[in-house]
Every structure is written in structure tokens, then in C-alpha cells.
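hey so i finally got around to running the thing on that chain from the lab meeting. sorry it took forever, my laptop kept dying and i had to restart like 3 times. anyway pasting the input first so we r on the same page abt which one it is
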Amino acid sequence: MMTTSIWVISLEPYSKTNSSLEAYNKTNNSLEAYNKTNNSLEAYNKTNNSLEAYNKTNNSLEAYNKTNNSLEAYNKTNNSLEAYNKTNNSLEAYNKTNNSLEAYNKTNNSLEAYNKTNNSLEAYNKTNNSLEAYNKTNNSLEAYNKTNNSLEAYNKTNNSLEAYNKTNNNLEAYNKTNNSLEAYKKTNNSLEVYNKTNNSLEAYNKTNNSLEAYNKTNNSLEAYNKTNNSLEVYNKTNNSLEAYNKTNNSLEAYNKTNNSLEAYNKTNNSLEAYNKTNNSLEAYNKTNNSLEAYNKTNNSLEAYNKTNNSLEAYNKTNNSLEAYNKTNNSLEAYNKTNNSLEAYNKTNNSLEAYNKTNISLEAYNKTNNSLEAYNKTNNSLEAYNKTNNSLEAYNKTNNSLEAYNKTNISLEAYNKTNNSLEAYNKTNNSLEAYNKTNNSLEAYNKTNNSLEAYNKTNNSMTQKNMKPISSNTKRD
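ok and heres what got predicted. didnt touch it at all, straight out
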């Protein structure tokens, strides 16, 4: 199943330094060139019958909504995102004012149309008044908060991010103290400099045969591993990002040229120490005092926990993923039974059925020798754990997620307190019930109608839960 994530990184300074995605596109021929040259997701759809076929065959999230009363029911029952929208005028207002994702769906008709019509985020911005208008009008999340009563209202009501902001001075203080994103921006001039110097993904592709090779050979991660010695080397040598940097000249070169992550590492003893010791997050924690130090210095998550009873209470009460696993037979059963996504597929009729019906990941695996080959060669996450002492060692040594699970009661308590995921779990019986009732992704695939239909019919995540920013609002 493919997930599209949207990252918003300090849009205010991002816009001021002309390091926006528009400049990124103009200079590097970033996503635009990526689309034109590689035929990006469009070609991906045409060749792999991936998202395009997925949309056509599955009817995507729409059926999912109709059948499962998924997030919509989730909102109605848990008073979760729906109440959040009603109270904070968050994502719902966002949709109404900016015609953001909604307009995006109507105009672009999915990523394929998005590619054809918009030719990248630049066109997307011009047409949808999306991120570009967002930047011009809102001047970042601050304006977003003031205008939409989004995160700001959220902060006022939940004493969540607001308290976090007051104590830590938000990311700005974080930047000033850690020389994190702020220093990154001052020194590197953000993505723009990165683009000019490194030629961004284009140069990355040319040098590392990374995504470019990926597109040309369509051998996905396997070819990527063979050519770049990327994840494959990562697994074999267990030198993590350091080896990755040394072999591919990827992040390492990025660090050397931009003084980006490298400088960040030097100052914060962050990823650099992580790379040097390669003791995974444990060394990262010991050397950098990672999140702990982060909490102590910035009063970040720690203060956030103390004030908001957020993650801290979440930790104390919950039982985290472990309890979540025990109750829902979710990730725990997933781990015990599955030993990888393949087993997961066989047991849950999840991704496997998804593959069979949609010719999605399965065909993707067969054609691209992607995740399937990845699993065969690396033995998936299990081998990854055994060889790299990655998540497994991480759990054993750091008592990380495992301890976190034992102490926290994580999502379970979180559910009990917030009536959030718990109610969701009780009603839907979590992923297990979800799988049993919905036949998981299979039913999801069979019934759906893509995010577009989902948006139009359900007015759920896109129209209900997502709220846009007023185009006529000015930064305070």
C-alpha cells in the first residue's frame, strides 16, 4: 500500500529565502523535471498499473468509507478528528477556505492528472493556490494558526502545541539552541542552495544512480541496492547511514557540501555520532542524549509531556504498542505470526490480496524485484533485525519500543483517556477486526474509489477534516 506524505518544514523562512518548492522546481527541475524525464508517478502508474490501476480497480477510499464507515465513523464515534475540526476549525476550515486538497482532487483528479496538468508542485501552487498561496498569505504555520484557528486553537484548547510553543519557543528556540533548522537555513540557504550546489535529486540521481537508475531500470529497491549498495550494503555491513554515505556519496556528500546534516551532526552530536558509533539509536541516545537531551535543553517533548499530559501521560498510562498488540492482536500478532509482510499478507489477506487484486505490490515485486527481492535477500525486517541489530537490538538494548510498550500502555491508555484510538479499537477491533471485517486492504481495494471519490462523497479527511488557509488572510 502506498502512502503519500506531505512535509511542511518552516514554511516562513522557507518562503523568505526563496527556497520554496517553486524555486526548487525552477532551479533543479526537481519534481517537474522528474516528471518530464522519469515520467514519475504517471509512468509508474502506466507501467506498474500501480496507483492508476489501484484507483480504477479499487475505488479506493470511497468504498472503504462506505463499507467501513472508516474515518467518518471514527469521527462520529470517537469525536476525534470530527470534533477536532468542529472545535478548532482545523482541517475542515482549511478545506473550505483554501480549496486545498478538495480543489486539488477536483482539478487534478489524482496524482496522474496532477502530473499531467500541474507538472509538479509549482503548477499545483499556481492552480490550487496550495503551498504557494499558503506561503504568501499565511506566512507559515504562525499565520495559519492565527487565521484558521487551527493549531493555535488546538493549542488553546488542548494546552498542547501552544504550551509546547510557550515553553520551548517552538522550533525557533529549537533552532537557536541546537543550531538546527535555523542554522541549516542560514548556512545552506535551505533547499535552494542545496539545489544549486548539489543539483538536488537530479545530481543525486546522476551520481548515485539512485532514483534515476530506479526509474530507468525499474528494478526498484533491488537495483537500487545493487547499484548504490544502498540498503543492501546497509544490511550487510550494518554501517547504517555512515556506510551509506561512504559508498553512495549520498548524505555524506550532502553533509560535506551543504554543511547540512554534517554541521547539524557536529553541533548536536546527532546523526554524525549516530554514524560514527553506528550503535543505532542506543549510541545515538548515549552520545547525543538524543531526545532526552532534547527534552532537557528545549523542554521539548518532556515539557510537552509534563504540561500537556501528552506523550508522558501517554507513556505512563498506555501500554504502548505492546498492550495495543496484546489487546488488538495487532502489531504483536503481526510480529509473531508474520515474520514479514509476506506472512502478514498470507494471514490477513492484507497486502497479499492487495497484490493479487490490484497487481499492486505483488506485481510490483514480481516486475521490479522490489520488496519481494528485498525480502528474499534481506529476509525483510527479520533479517534486518538479526543482521543489523537494528530494531530488534534496539528493543533489547535500549528497552526502546519494547520497554516503551511495557511502561507506557501507549495507544491503549491513550485511547482510554482521549477516547481516540481506543474507541476506534473497541469499535473496529483495531487492525485485526479491521482485517476480519473489512478484509483489510483487500476489501479496501475492492470497494474503494480513491481519495478523490473519498473527498467528494465522504467529506471526510479531505473535505471535513482538512482545513485550508484563507487566501486573503495576512500574517500577523
